[in-house]
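Input chain follows. Return structure tokens only.
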Amino acid sequence: MRALSAVVAALHTLALALGLPAVWQRARLLGGPLDRDRLRSVFLADAIWGIAAVLWLITGALRAFGGLEKGAGFYLGSWLFYFKLGLVALVLALEVLPMVGLIRWRIALTRGADADLRGASLYRSLSFVQCFVVIAIVFVASFMARGYGRMGR
């Protein structure tokens, strides 16, 4: 069980190593001229960001509720855990528009049409905000792991 816990924790950390640079790269790429080659790079960064997000959610749930770490009581007994979940929800909410927009762009390009790129600036801004929220999540998680935020103390 300890080995599984270590693997899940490593995958959780790896998701950060993949996701944060990917969303930053997506934002950076959206700031330039969006020809087909650059859009392919945007889509690659977006796909890595998506993979990282899924990996984060699965490994995070396993760590909190899968009996691998400190146990659900530890997490549920910390107001920082709820704050962290709120930040995760914020990242997901901020992702709705870029996700839908980039899916539409992919569909248009697959059909041989031009993508409607008017949302690029907004998607870029939202991506940069997501970067900073992810960084905040890391700090909250670090404090929570060290026992800060315990309720009823």
